[in-house]
Amino acid sequence: MDLKTADYLVIILYFLFVLGVGFIIKRKIKSSSDFLASTRTIPLWITSLAFISANLGAQEVIGMVASGAKYGIVTVHFYWVGAIFAMIFLGVFMMPFYYGSRARSVPEYLKLRFDEKTRGLNAITFAVMTVFSSGISLYALAKMLEIILKWDFDISIWIAAGIVMIYTFMGGLKSAVYNEVLQFFLIVLGFSPLVIVALQDAGGWASIKANLQPNMTHAWQYMGDKDANPLGLHFMSLIFGLGFVMSFGYWCTDFLVIQRAMIAKNMREAQLTPIIAAIPKMLMPLIVVLPGIIAIALMQPALANGYKIPVDETGQLNYTMTLPSMIAHYYPSGLLGVGITALMASFMSGMAGNVTAFNAVFTFDIYQPYFVKNKSDKHYLVVGKIVTVAGILISIITAYIAKGFNNINDFLQLVFGFVNGPLFATFLLGMFWKRTTGHGAFWGLVAGTVGAALTHGLTIAEGKGGWIAPLYEIKSGMGQAFIVAGVSWVVNFFTTIIVSLFTKPKPDEELKGLVYSLTPKQVDAGGPWYKRVGPIALILLLVTLILNIIFF
Fold first, then answer.
1. 445 and 275 Cβ atoms separated by less than 8 Å
2. Which pLDDT value is given to residue 197?
Protein backbone atom coordinates (compact mmCIF):
# COMPACT_ATOMS: atom_id res chain seq x y z
CA MET A 1 0.00 0.00 0.00
CA ASP A 2 1.29 3.44 -0.94
CA LEU A 3 1.09 6.35 1.46
CA LYS A 4 -0.48 9.55 0.19
CA THR A 5 0.66 13.09 0.85
CA ALA A 6 -1.57 13.44 3.92
CA ASP A 7 -0.05 10.29 5.42
CA TYR A 8 3.49 11.52 4.90
CA LEU A 9 2.61 14.87 6.47
CA VAL A 10 1.44 13.12 9.65
CA ILE A 11 4.63 11.06 9.82
CA ILE A 12 6.90 14.05 9.14
CA LEU A 13 5.09 16.10 11.79
CA TYR A 14 5.76 13.34 14.33
CA PHE A 15 9.44 13.15 13.41
CA LEU A 16 9.79 16.92 13.75
CA PHE A 17 8.11 16.84 17.14
CA VAL A 18 10.30 14.11 18.66
CA LEU A 19 13.46 15.72 17.31
CA GLY A 20 12.24 19.09 18.58
CA VAL A 21 11.79 17.67 22.07
CA GLY A 22 15.38 16.45 21.95
CA PHE A 23 16.69 19.87 20.87
CA ILE A 24 14.70 21.72 23.57
CA ILE A 25 15.80 19.40 26.37
CA LYS A 26 19.42 19.39 25.18
CA ARG A 27 19.85 22.93 26.53
CA LYS A 28 18.91 21.74 30.03
CA ILE A 29 21.40 18.86 30.11
CA LYS A 30 24.25 20.04 32.34
CA SER A 31 25.42 16.88 34.10
CA SER A 32 25.54 13.10 33.83
CA SER A 33 22.58 12.88 36.24
CA ASP A 34 20.53 15.18 33.99
CA PHE A 35 21.28 12.98 30.98
CA LEU A 36 21.16 9.50 32.53
CA ALA A 37 18.79 9.83 35.49
CA SER A 38 16.91 13.11 35.00
CA THR A 39 16.02 14.86 38.27
CA ARG A 40 13.23 14.42 40.79
CA THR A 41 11.13 17.20 39.27
CA ILE A 42 8.79 15.32 36.89
CA PRO A 43 5.04 15.68 37.76
CA LEU A 44 2.91 12.64 38.59
CA TRP A 45 0.78 12.61 35.44
CA ILE A 46 3.91 12.47 33.28
CA THR A 47 5.69 9.80 35.35
CA SER A 48 2.52 7.67 35.33
CA LEU A 49 2.01 7.87 31.57
CA ALA A 50 5.73 7.35 30.98
CA PHE A 51 5.61 4.32 33.33
CA ILE A 52 2.87 2.65 31.28
CA SER A 53 4.35 3.77 27.95
CA ALA A 54 7.77 2.34 28.82
CA ASN A 55 6.03 -1.04 28.53
CA LEU A 56 4.03 0.02 25.48
CA GLY A 57 6.70 -0.28 22.84
CA ALA A 58 6.44 -2.08 19.53
CA GLN A 59 6.91 -5.47 21.18
CA GLU A 60 3.98 -4.73 23.49
CA VAL A 61 1.63 -3.33 20.85
CA ILE A 62 2.45 -5.59 17.92
CA GLY A 63 3.38 -8.55 20.13
CA MET A 64 0.16 -8.50 22.15
CA VAL A 65 -1.99 -8.18 19.03
CA ALA A 66 -0.04 -11.15 17.66
CA SER A 67 -0.68 -13.09 20.86
CA GLY A 68 -4.37 -12.17 20.71
CA ALA A 69 -4.56 -13.75 17.26
CA LYS A 70 -2.46 -16.77 18.26
CA TYR A 71 -3.79 -17.53 21.74
CA GLY A 72 -7.12 -15.68 21.94
CA ILE A 73 -8.50 -13.89 24.97
CA VAL A 74 -6.16 -15.70 27.39
CA THR A 75 -3.70 -12.98 26.33
CA VAL A 76 -5.52 -10.62 28.73
CA HIS A 77 -3.79 -12.53 31.51
CA PHE A 78 -0.73 -10.42 30.73
CA TYR A 79 -2.74 -7.49 32.10
CA TRP A 80 -5.31 -8.73 34.60
CA VAL A 81 -3.01 -11.39 36.11
CA GLY A 82 0.44 -10.45 34.91
CA ALA A 83 0.54 -6.69 35.52
CA ILE A 84 -2.00 -4.98 37.80
CA PHE A 85 -1.25 -6.91 40.99
CA ALA A 86 2.50 -6.45 40.60
CA MET A 87 2.18 -2.73 39.79
CA ILE A 88 0.15 -2.22 42.95
CA PHE A 89 2.67 -4.23 45.00
CA LEU A 90 5.49 -2.11 43.59
CA GLY A 91 3.73 1.13 44.54
CA VAL A 92 2.66 0.08 48.02
CA PHE A 93 5.63 -1.97 49.24
CA MET A 94 8.71 -1.58 47.05
CA MET A 95 8.91 2.04 45.93
CA PRO A 96 9.69 3.22 49.47
CA PHE A 97 12.91 1.17 49.27
CA TYR A 98 13.88 2.28 45.77
CA TYR A 99 13.04 5.94 46.24
CA GLY A 100 14.15 6.19 49.86
CA SER A 101 17.56 4.66 49.19
CA ARG A 102 18.23 7.41 46.59
CA ALA A 103 19.91 4.80 44.40
CA ARG A 104 20.33 5.90 40.79
CA SER A 105 19.40 2.47 39.44
CA VAL A 106 18.13 -0.96 40.47
CA PRO A 107 21.62 -2.51 40.34
CA GLU A 108 22.86 0.28 42.61
CA TYR A 109 20.12 -0.63 45.11
CA LEU A 110 21.40 -4.22 45.00
CA LYS A 111 24.86 -2.95 45.87
CA LEU A 112 23.48 -1.10 48.90
CA ARG A 113 21.42 -4.10 50.03
CA PHE A 114 23.89 -6.87 49.20
CA ASP A 115 27.33 -6.28 47.68
CA GLU A 116 29.25 -5.23 44.61
CA LYS A 117 29.28 -8.58 42.83
CA THR A 118 25.49 -8.90 43.01
CA ARG A 119 25.16 -5.43 41.53
CA GLY A 120 27.60 -6.26 38.75
CA LEU A 121 25.84 -9.49 37.77
CA ASN A 122 22.45 -7.79 37.62
CA ALA A 123 23.85 -4.83 35.69
CA ILE A 124 25.31 -7.11 33.03
CA THR A 125 22.19 -9.27 32.61
CA PHE A 126 19.94 -6.21 32.56
CA ALA A 127 22.11 -4.50 29.95
CA VAL A 128 21.88 -7.59 27.75
CA MET A 129 18.09 -7.79 28.18
CA THR A 130 17.52 -4.13 27.31
CA VAL A 131 19.44 -4.28 24.05
CA PHE A 132 17.54 -7.45 23.12
CA SER A 133 14.26 -5.69 23.88
CA SER A 134 15.39 -2.63 21.95
CA GLY A 135 16.33 -4.82 19.00
CA ILE A 136 12.88 -6.43 19.02
CA SER A 137 11.29 -2.99 18.73
CA LEU A 138 13.60 -2.16 15.86
CA TYR A 139 12.83 -5.41 14.06
CA ALA A 140 9.09 -4.88 14.48
CA LEU A 141 9.15 -1.46 12.87
CA ALA A 142 11.41 -2.46 9.99
CA LYS A 143 9.26 -5.52 9.26
CA MET A 144 6.13 -3.39 9.36
CA LEU A 145 7.56 -0.89 6.88
CA GLU A 146 8.62 -3.75 4.63
CA ILE A 147 5.20 -5.42 4.62
CA ILE A 148 2.97 -2.35 4.41
CA LEU A 149 5.04 0.20 2.52
CA LYS A 150 7.39 -2.17 0.64
CA TRP A 151 10.40 -0.36 2.05
CA ASP A 152 13.68 -2.24 2.22
CA PHE A 153 14.06 -4.03 5.57
CA ASP A 154 17.74 -3.22 6.04
CA ILE A 155 17.42 0.44 5.10
CA SER A 156 14.38 0.84 7.39
CA ILE A 157 16.38 -0.52 10.34
CA TRP A 158 19.23 1.94 9.90
CA ILE A 159 17.05 5.00 9.27
CA ALA A 160 14.74 4.31 12.21
CA ALA A 161 17.68 3.59 14.53
CA GLY A 162 19.31 6.83 13.42
CA ILE A 163 16.28 8.93 14.36
CA VAL A 164 16.06 7.36 17.81
CA MET A 165 19.77 7.88 18.30
CA ILE A 166 19.52 11.60 17.53
CA TYR A 167 16.87 12.50 20.09
CA THR A 168 18.17 10.20 22.85
CA PHE A 169 21.71 11.46 22.26
CA MET A 170 20.53 15.05 22.67
CA GLY A 171 17.98 14.83 25.48
CA GLY A 172 18.74 11.60 27.33
CA LEU A 173 16.17 10.17 29.76
CA LYS A 174 14.00 13.27 29.96
CA SER A 175 13.65 13.35 26.17
CA ALA A 176 12.57 9.69 26.20
CA VAL A 177 10.04 10.29 29.00
CA TYR A 178 8.28 13.21 27.31
CA ASN A 179 8.14 11.34 24.00
CA GLU A 180 6.65 8.35 25.83
CA VAL A 181 3.74 10.55 26.92
CA LEU A 182 3.16 11.57 23.29
CA GLN A 183 3.40 7.91 22.30
CA PHE A 184 0.62 6.91 24.72
CA PHE A 185 -1.88 9.35 23.22
CA LEU A 186 -0.84 8.45 19.67
CA ILE A 187 -1.43 4.76 20.31
CA VAL A 188 -4.87 5.30 21.84
CA LEU A 189 -5.96 7.74 19.11
CA GLY A 190 -4.28 5.77 16.33
CA PHE A 191 -5.70 2.33 17.10
CA SER A 192 -9.13 3.06 18.59
CA PRO A 193 -10.76 3.61 15.15
CA LEU A 194 -9.31 0.28 13.99
CA VAL A 195 -10.89 -1.59 16.90
CA ILE A 196 -14.26 0.08 16.36
CA VAL A 197 -14.40 -0.51 12.59
CA ALA A 198 -13.01 -4.07 12.67
CA LEU A 199 -15.29 -5.09 15.54
CA GLN A 200 -18.29 -3.80 13.63
CA ASP A 201 -17.09 -5.64 10.52
CA ALA A 202 -16.91 -8.85 12.55
CA GLY A 203 -20.48 -8.42 13.75
CA GLY A 204 -19.64 -7.58 17.36
CA TRP A 205 -18.33 -9.67 20.22
CA ALA A 206 -21.28 -12.08 20.10
CA SER A 207 -20.52 -12.91 16.47
CA ILE A 208 -16.83 -13.43 17.25
CA LYS A 209 -17.69 -15.85 20.07
CA ALA A 210 -20.00 -17.74 17.75
CA ASN A 211 -17.35 -18.17 15.06
CA LEU A 212 -14.27 -19.00 17.13
CA GLN A 213 -13.47 -22.01 19.27
CA PRO A 214 -14.75 -21.40 22.84
CA ASN A 215 -11.23 -21.62 24.27
CA MET A 216 -10.31 -18.52 22.23
CA THR A 217 -12.98 -16.35 23.89
CA HIS A 218 -12.87 -17.48 27.53
CA ALA A 219 -10.02 -16.34 29.76
CA TRP A 220 -10.25 -18.98 32.51
CA GLN A 221 -12.86 -21.59 31.62
CA TYR A 222 -10.44 -23.90 29.76
CA MET A 223 -7.33 -23.32 31.88
CA GLY A 224 -8.04 -26.37 34.08
CA ASP A 225 -6.76 -28.68 31.32
CA LYS A 226 -3.47 -27.83 29.61
CA ASP A 227 -4.57 -29.61 26.43
CA ALA A 228 -7.82 -27.63 26.21
CA ASN A 229 -6.39 -24.10 25.94
CA PRO A 230 -4.14 -22.44 23.31
CA LEU A 231 -1.29 -21.81 25.78
CA GLY A 232 -0.98 -25.49 26.64
CA LEU A 233 -0.74 -24.63 30.35
CA HIS A 234 -2.62 -25.54 33.52
CA PHE A 235 -3.94 -22.51 35.39
CA MET A 236 -1.51 -23.15 38.27
CA SER A 237 1.44 -22.82 35.88
CA LEU A 238 -0.11 -19.63 34.52
CA ILE A 239 -0.64 -18.10 37.97
CA PHE A 240 2.83 -19.02 39.21
CA GLY A 241 4.80 -18.53 35.99
CA LEU A 242 3.09 -15.38 34.71
CA GLY A 243 1.07 -13.99 37.62
CA PHE A 244 3.86 -14.30 40.16
CA VAL A 245 7.34 -14.84 38.70
CA MET A 246 7.13 -13.07 35.34
CA SER A 247 4.80 -10.31 36.50
CA PHE A 248 6.47 -9.35 39.77
CA GLY A 249 9.87 -10.08 38.25
CA TYR A 250 9.25 -7.49 35.53
CA TRP A 251 7.19 -4.75 37.17
CA CYS A 252 8.99 -4.83 40.53
CA THR A 253 12.62 -5.23 39.44
CA ASP A 254 12.99 -4.00 35.84
CA PHE A 255 14.87 -0.70 35.93
CA LEU A 256 13.31 0.42 32.64
CA VAL A 257 9.90 0.95 34.23
CA ILE A 258 11.00 1.61 37.81
CA GLN A 259 13.21 4.44 36.54
CA ARG A 260 10.04 6.37 35.61
CA ALA A 261 8.83 6.24 39.23
CA MET A 262 12.27 7.07 40.63
CA ILE A 263 12.23 10.50 38.92
CA ALA A 264 8.95 11.57 40.59
CA LYS A 265 8.90 14.71 42.76
CA ASN A 266 8.45 13.00 46.14
CA MET A 267 7.83 9.66 47.82
CA ARG A 268 4.02 9.82 47.59
CA GLU A 269 4.12 10.50 43.84
CA ALA A 270 6.74 7.79 43.37
CA GLN A 271 4.38 5.31 45.02
CA LEU A 272 1.37 6.58 43.06
CA THR A 273 3.18 6.40 39.70
CA PRO A 274 2.74 2.63 39.10
CA ILE A 275 -0.69 2.64 40.78
CA ILE A 276 -2.09 5.44 38.60
CA ALA A 277 -0.46 3.77 35.58
CA ALA A 278 -2.45 0.60 36.40
CA ILE A 279 -5.69 2.36 35.44
CA PRO A 280 -4.95 2.65 31.69
CA LYS A 281 -3.03 -0.64 31.87
CA MET A 282 -6.16 -2.63 32.75
CA LEU A 283 -7.97 -1.08 29.77
CA MET A 284 -5.19 -1.65 27.23
CA PRO A 285 -6.49 -5.09 26.12
CA LEU A 286 -9.20 -3.18 24.21
CA ILE A 287 -6.43 -1.64 22.09
CA VAL A 288 -3.79 -4.37 21.90
CA VAL A 289 -5.49 -7.74 22.46
CA LEU A 290 -8.97 -7.36 20.94
CA PRO A 291 -7.64 -6.51 17.43
CA GLY A 292 -5.82 -9.87 17.32
CA ILE A 293 -8.94 -11.79 18.30
CA ILE A 294 -10.95 -9.88 15.70
CA ALA A 295 -8.32 -10.63 13.06
CA ILE A 296 -8.46 -14.39 13.56
CA ALA A 297 -12.28 -14.22 13.60
CA LEU A 298 -12.36 -12.34 10.29
CA MET A 299 -10.49 -15.23 8.67
CA GLN A 300 -13.24 -17.70 9.56
CA PRO A 301 -15.41 -18.74 6.57
CA ALA A 302 -18.59 -17.18 7.98
CA LEU A 303 -16.94 -13.77 8.42
CA ALA A 304 -14.43 -13.77 5.55
CA ASN A 305 -14.25 -10.22 4.15
CA GLY A 306 -10.98 -10.32 2.24
CA TYR A 307 -8.70 -9.75 5.23
CA LYS A 308 -6.01 -12.34 5.95
CA ILE A 309 -3.09 -12.43 8.34
CA PRO A 310 0.11 -12.54 6.24
CA VAL A 311 2.12 -15.77 6.06
CA ASP A 312 5.88 -16.17 6.42
CA GLU A 313 8.36 -17.96 4.18
CA THR A 314 7.23 -21.37 5.47
CA GLY A 315 3.56 -20.69 4.77
CA GLN A 316 2.62 -20.32 8.45
CA LEU A 317 0.65 -17.35 9.77
CA ASN A 318 3.02 -14.52 10.65
CA TYR A 319 1.20 -13.30 13.76
CA THR A 320 3.68 -10.46 14.24
CA MET A 321 2.21 -8.78 11.17
CA THR A 322 -1.41 -8.96 12.38
CA LEU A 323 -1.71 -5.33 13.48
CA PRO A 324 0.18 -3.77 10.54
CA SER A 325 -1.85 -5.80 8.06
CA MET A 326 -5.13 -4.74 9.70
CA ILE A 327 -4.10 -1.10 9.48
CA ALA A 328 -3.27 -1.54 5.80
CA HIS A 329 -6.63 -3.26 5.22
CA TYR A 330 -8.90 -0.83 7.04
CA TYR A 331 -7.34 2.61 7.13
CA PRO A 332 -7.81 5.10 4.27
CA SER A 333 -5.31 7.80 3.35
CA GLY A 334 -4.75 10.24 6.20
CA LEU A 335 -5.93 7.83 8.85
CA LEU A 336 -3.38 5.34 7.53
CA GLY A 337 -0.71 7.92 8.30
CA VAL A 338 -2.01 8.20 11.87
CA GLY A 339 -1.94 4.41 12.30
CA ILE A 340 1.56 4.09 10.86
CA THR A 341 2.73 6.99 13.04
CA ALA A 342 1.27 5.33 16.14
CA LEU A 343 3.23 2.18 15.32
CA MET A 344 6.36 4.21 14.72
CA ALA A 345 5.81 5.99 18.02
CA SER A 346 5.48 2.69 19.87
CA PHE A 347 8.70 1.47 18.29
CA MET A 348 10.66 4.64 18.89
CA SER A 349 9.59 5.15 22.48
CA GLY A 350 10.10 1.48 23.26
CA MET A 351 13.57 1.52 21.79
CA ALA A 352 14.48 4.88 23.36
CA GLY A 353 13.30 3.68 26.77
CA ASN A 354 15.49 0.61 26.58
CA VAL A 355 18.48 2.57 25.34
CA THR A 356 18.22 5.20 28.10
CA ALA A 357 17.94 2.46 30.73
CA PHE A 358 20.92 0.69 29.14
CA ASN A 359 23.14 3.77 29.12
CA ALA A 360 22.33 4.59 32.77
CA VAL A 361 23.07 1.07 34.02
CA PHE A 362 26.19 0.67 31.89
CA THR A 363 27.62 4.04 32.95
CA PHE A 364 26.65 4.03 36.64
CA ASP A 365 26.88 0.29 37.39
CA ILE A 366 29.51 -1.13 35.02
CA TYR A 367 31.81 1.58 33.69
CA GLN A 368 32.12 3.81 36.77
CA PRO A 369 32.61 1.15 39.49
CA TYR A 370 34.70 -1.33 37.49
CA PHE A 371 36.65 0.58 34.85
CA VAL A 372 37.13 4.29 35.51
CA LYS A 373 36.45 5.58 39.03
CA ASN A 374 36.56 9.11 40.42
CA LYS A 375 36.50 10.99 37.11
CA SER A 376 34.76 14.31 36.56
CA ASP A 377 31.02 14.47 35.99
CA LYS A 378 31.66 15.74 32.47
CA HIS A 379 33.60 12.57 31.75
CA TYR A 380 30.64 10.36 32.70
CA LEU A 381 28.29 12.56 30.68
CA VAL A 382 30.45 11.97 27.58
CA VAL A 383 30.61 8.24 28.32
CA GLY A 384 26.83 8.13 28.70
CA LYS A 385 26.40 9.62 25.25
CA ILE A 386 28.92 7.23 23.71
CA VAL A 387 27.13 4.30 25.34
CA THR A 388 23.85 5.59 23.87
CA VAL A 389 25.30 5.23 20.37
CA ALA A 390 26.73 1.80 21.23
CA GLY A 391 23.34 0.67 22.54
CA ILE A 392 21.70 1.62 19.25
CA LEU A 393 24.30 -0.33 17.25
CA ILE A 394 23.90 -3.45 19.42
CA SER A 395 20.11 -3.15 19.06
CA ILE A 396 20.52 -3.36 15.31
CA ILE A 397 22.31 -6.68 15.71
CA THR A 398 19.61 -8.10 18.00
CA ALA A 399 16.94 -6.98 15.52
CA TYR A 400 18.24 -9.58 13.08
CA ILE A 401 18.13 -12.27 15.79
CA ALA A 402 14.43 -11.49 16.35
CA LYS A 403 13.69 -12.48 12.75
CA GLY A 404 13.73 -16.13 13.83
CA PHE A 405 10.48 -15.86 15.84
CA ASN A 406 6.97 -15.82 14.35
CA ASN A 407 5.68 -14.04 17.48
CA ILE A 408 8.06 -11.49 18.95
CA ASN A 409 6.17 -11.57 22.25
CA ASP A 410 7.18 -15.22 22.72
CA PHE A 411 10.83 -14.19 22.24
CA LEU A 412 10.51 -11.25 24.62
CA GLN A 413 8.89 -13.31 27.38
CA LEU A 414 11.66 -15.90 27.08
CA VAL A 415 14.30 -13.19 27.60
CA PHE A 416 12.36 -11.92 30.64
CA GLY A 417 12.22 -15.47 32.00
CA PHE A 418 16.02 -15.70 31.97
CA VAL A 419 16.61 -12.28 33.58
CA ASN A 420 13.59 -11.12 35.60
CA GLY A 421 12.44 -14.56 36.77
CA PRO A 422 15.38 -15.28 39.08
CA LEU A 423 15.85 -11.60 39.94
CA PHE A 424 12.48 -11.30 41.70
CA ALA A 425 13.44 -14.08 44.12
CA THR A 426 16.52 -12.05 45.03
CA PHE A 427 14.49 -8.90 45.67
CA LEU A 428 11.74 -10.67 47.55
CA LEU A 429 14.18 -12.25 49.98
CA GLY A 430 16.40 -9.18 50.15
CA MET A 431 13.61 -6.76 51.01
CA PHE A 432 11.64 -8.96 53.39
CA TRP A 433 14.24 -11.28 55.00
CA LYS A 434 17.10 -9.38 56.60
CA ARG A 435 19.12 -12.61 56.94
CA THR A 436 19.70 -12.69 53.16
CA THR A 437 23.39 -12.21 52.40
CA GLY A 438 25.32 -10.88 49.44
CA HIS A 439 26.81 -14.31 48.73
CA GLY A 440 23.33 -15.84 48.84
CA ALA A 441 21.94 -13.24 46.44
CA PHE A 442 24.81 -13.62 43.98
CA TRP A 443 24.86 -17.41 43.84
CA GLY A 444 21.06 -17.46 43.77
CA LEU A 445 21.09 -15.31 40.65
CA VAL A 446 23.73 -17.52 39.04
CA ALA A 447 21.84 -20.71 39.91
CA GLY A 448 18.52 -19.25 38.74
CA THR A 449 19.95 -18.25 35.37
CA VAL A 450 21.56 -21.69 34.95
CA GLY A 451 18.24 -23.27 35.89
CA ALA A 452 16.50 -21.20 33.22
CA ALA A 453 19.06 -22.25 30.60
CA LEU A 454 18.78 -25.94 31.49
CA THR A 455 14.98 -25.80 31.40
CA HIS A 456 15.04 -24.16 27.97
CA GLY A 457 17.60 -26.69 26.77
CA LEU A 458 15.58 -29.68 27.95
CA THR A 459 12.16 -28.51 26.69
CA ILE A 460 10.99 -27.73 23.19
CA ALA A 461 8.10 -25.58 21.96
CA GLU A 462 7.32 -24.77 18.34
CA GLY A 463 10.83 -25.82 17.34
CA LYS A 464 12.51 -23.57 19.92
CA GLY A 465 14.64 -24.86 22.79
CA GLY A 466 15.69 -28.49 23.25
CA TRP A 467 19.31 -27.65 22.44
CA ILE A 468 20.51 -30.06 25.15
CA ALA A 469 17.88 -32.75 24.62
CA PRO A 470 14.17 -32.29 23.80
CA LEU A 471 12.93 -34.29 26.78
CA TYR A 472 9.61 -32.49 27.21
CA GLU A 473 7.43 -30.79 24.60
CA ILE A 474 5.37 -27.71 25.49
CA LYS A 475 2.45 -26.66 23.32
CA SER A 476 3.40 -22.98 22.91
CA GLY A 477 6.46 -20.76 23.06
CA MET A 478 4.68 -18.59 25.58
CA GLY A 479 4.05 -21.57 27.83
CA GLN A 480 7.71 -22.50 27.61
CA ALA A 481 8.69 -18.98 28.71
CA PHE A 482 6.44 -19.24 31.78
CA ILE A 483 7.92 -22.60 32.79
CA VAL A 484 11.49 -21.33 32.28
CA ALA A 485 10.69 -18.33 34.51
CA GLY A 486 9.06 -20.50 37.18
CA VAL A 487 11.99 -22.90 37.41
CA SER A 488 14.52 -20.05 37.51
CA TRP A 489 12.64 -18.42 40.41
CA VAL A 490 12.40 -21.62 42.45
CA VAL A 491 16.09 -22.47 41.94
CA ASN A 492 17.14 -18.94 42.88
CA PHE A 493 14.85 -18.78 45.91
CA PHE A 494 16.14 -21.94 47.57
CA THR A 495 19.76 -21.43 46.56
CA THR A 496 19.71 -17.94 48.08
CA ILE A 497 18.23 -19.23 51.34
CA ILE A 498 20.71 -22.10 51.67
CA VAL A 499 23.79 -20.01 50.91
CA SER A 500 22.57 -17.17 53.16
CA LEU A 501 22.20 -19.53 56.12
CA PHE A 502 25.87 -20.47 55.78
CA THR A 503 27.23 -16.95 55.26
CA LYS A 504 27.36 -13.82 57.39
CA PRO A 505 24.64 -11.17 56.90
CA LYS A 506 25.11 -7.41 57.10
CA PRO A 507 24.50 -5.78 60.49
CA ASP A 508 21.09 -4.19 61.05
CA GLU A 509 22.53 -0.66 61.02
CA GLU A 510 23.57 -1.06 57.38
CA LEU A 511 20.14 -2.34 56.33
CA LYS A 512 17.96 0.50 57.58
CA GLY A 513 15.86 1.81 54.71
CA LEU A 514 16.69 -1.28 52.64
CA VAL A 515 14.76 -4.03 54.46
CA TYR A 516 11.06 -3.94 55.32
CA SER A 517 11.39 -4.80 59.01
CA LEU A 518 14.07 -2.12 59.54
CA THR A 519 12.41 0.69 57.58
CA PRO A 520 9.93 3.24 59.00
CA LYS A 521 6.52 2.53 57.48
CA GLN A 522 4.91 5.10 55.21
CA VAL A 523 1.75 6.60 56.73
CA ASP A 524 -0.96 6.91 54.07
CA ALA A 525 -2.93 9.69 55.73
CA GLY A 526 -4.16 13.15 54.86
CA GLY A 527 -5.80 14.47 51.73
CA PRO A 528 -8.77 13.11 49.77
CA TRP A 529 -8.99 9.36 49.13
CA TYR A 530 -8.26 9.71 45.42
CA LYS A 531 -4.82 11.13 46.23
CA ARG A 532 -3.87 8.36 48.65
CA VAL A 533 -2.02 5.16 47.83
CA GLY A 534 -4.09 2.69 49.87
CA PRO A 535 -7.66 3.47 48.71
CA ILE A 536 -6.72 3.66 45.02
CA ALA A 537 -4.83 0.37 45.26
CA LEU A 538 -7.81 -1.43 46.86
CA ILE A 539 -10.24 -0.11 44.23
CA LEU A 540 -7.96 -1.24 41.39
CA LEU A 541 -7.64 -4.71 42.90
CA LEU A 542 -11.43 -5.01 43.10
CA VAL A 543 -11.95 -3.84 39.50
CA THR A 544 -9.30 -6.29 38.24
CA LEU A 545 -11.02 -9.20 39.98
CA ILE A 546 -14.37 -8.17 38.46
CA LEU A 547 -12.86 -8.08 34.95
CA ASN A 548 -11.50 -11.61 35.39
CA ILE A 549 -14.95 -12.80 36.47
CA ILE A 550 -16.74 -11.10 33.56
CA PHE A 551 -14.51 -12.76 30.95
CA PHE A 552 -14.14 -16.05 32.83
1. no
2. 92
